[in-house]
Write a structure and sequence with these properties.
With 331 residues, this protein is mainly alpha-helical. It folds into two domains: 207 residues, Rossmann fold (3-Layer(aba) Sandwich), CATH 3.40.50.620; 89 residues, Tyrosyl-Transfer RNA Synthetase (Orthogonal Bundle). The chain contains 13 helices and five strands. The strands form two sheets. Strands 1-2-3 form a three-stranded parallel sheet. The protein has a two-stranded parallel sheet with strand order 4-5. Helix 7 packs across helix 8 and helix 10 crosses helix 12. The structure holds tryptophanyl-5'AMP (TYM).
Length: 331
Amino acid sequence: MKIILSGIKPSGIPTLGNYIGALKNFVSLQEEMKDFEFFVFVADLHAITVPHDVEELRQNIRSVAALYLASGLSVDNLSLFVQSEVHEHAELGYILQTISYMGELERMTQYKDKAKQQKSGIPAALFNYPILMAADILLYDAQYVPVGEDQKQHLELTRNLAERFNNRYGETFVVPEVLVTKTGAKIMDLQDPLKKMDKSANNEKGCIFLLEPIDTIKKKIKSSITDSESKIKYSKSRKPGISNLITIYSALTGLTYTAIEKKYENAGYGLFKNDLADIVANEIGILQEKYHKIINSKMLDDILDMGKAKAQAIAQKKIREVYNKVGLTRG
Ligand code: TYM
């Protein structure tokens, strides 16, 4: 079985960044790569590496699962599951800790950023986070892992760990390849376009959450930061604000940057932002409608149960092989 796998952390409600960089991309990949099985999961074990509200986490696990389906993923070649329900993730994570180096983990930029935000005591699990992520992927021998730009470094580590394990214990894991969407792999904050749009950002005005009221979403787009020269022209270094909006426009409509520039050649920011607000509102509006139909349905639980069963069957086999390879079997 050829597998494409990815995960989303249920720490907060996913954003437009998650939608464009991950969810929407999964949907097009699923259409393009028909001979692959898609394994997507709610990365809940990752969500507890930072302080969290227990009840909120429970809700968010379900919400993220429903958002996968609301985005338009077809259930035909899909296994959707909750990470913590397949305990082999944690088990393989532990085994991979034994071949990971402190030095390589210290270099992870996401760890460094998150550690800075901790007021007191950095959890060891935050440090080990990329190892668990490697386990998520290697457990299934995934060939491709579609993610946004911010996860590329973790994917590089995953590849290193797979190769290291294979060298030490014999061929066991497929070395996965990262797939990054061509447009929108890093959607930026609407108020600070030099920062990634992030569900845990301090300024909520800069971040569009997929389940917030459509009017709020429109307002956020219309009041996004742009530079003073009022031309619709893509230049990431000189005009990061408008370039980010052009990227969002392009990702949602399929129009190229050049086509968008041409379309708005004689227009100012006002008109462009109004149009973009409508485009985003329309797409997220449809997503929300589907979401509300799914979120309390039994169908969602059935899909998650089936996904768990399919994931577990593969994971169990793999973990047995790994235990055997490292010598964790009675002599
Ligand atoms: P998470 O939950 O932070 O993000 C989920 C996916 O969304 C992408 N993404 C973005 N893409 C474009 N612009 C943005 N502003 C933006 N913000 C986030 C992320 O790159 C990601 O693809 N560690 C992972 C979850 C995970 C995982 C895995 C992913 C756990 N195990 C195994 C793949 C394979 C994470 O925190 O993603």
